Amino acid sequence: MLSNITIWVSTICVISIILNIVLFAYSRRVLVRVFNASETASELFTRLDSFQEHLTSVYELPTFYGDSTLEGLLEHNKALTTYLGQYDEIYSFTQPDLLEQLQAATQQLAEEDEEEKNPQEEK
């Protein structure tokens, strides 16, 4: 009688160990995919923001100011950025402070552009 119980308990333990190993491997694979998707989404959002800044700077040039095609591209880019911004939780999974980083980088670029436009003269 004790022998049968020992066999059943041993069998259940082995099955449990095998199931735990399989579930661990599956969970790891899913987490790697989610992490990769999150990294890709954050890179996409960063590139989209960079494109918007570049397009805005070109649009503000005297040669292109008021061009309806560039204005349409700016509006389309803003709409796309707003749409992707709805999925904030996805790309912020790996970089929770991504929006703050983007704002700081944008501000730094604006300051650098201002310095290039108005160079300070040394006395």
Broad shape: rod-shaped
H-E order: HHHH
Q: From the alpha carbons, calculate the radius of gyration and give it in angstroms.
A: 27 Å
What's the tally of helices? Answer: 4
Beginning-to-end CA distance, first to last residue? 100 Å
Helix content: over 70%
Structural class of the helix and strand makeup?
mainly alpha
Q: Largest beta sheet, briefly?
A: none
pLDDT < 50 runs, ≥5 residues:
none
The overall average pLDDT, rounded, is: 78
How is the quaternary structure best described?
single chain
How many strand segments?
0
Summarize the topology.
Layout: H1 2-59, H2 68-85, H3 88-91, H4 98-117
Helix pairs in contact: 1-2
Describe this structure in words.
The protein has 123 residues and is mainly α. The protein has a domain at 37-113. It has helices spanning 2-59, 68-85, 88-91, 98-117. Helix 1 runs antiparallel to helix 2. The protein is rod-shaped, with a radius of gyration of 27 Å. The model has no long low-confidence stretch (mean pLDDT 78).
Can you tag this structure with a few keywords?
single chain; 81% helix; rod-shaped; 123 residues
Give a short summary of the structure.
The protein is mainly alpha-helical. It contains 4 helices and no strands.
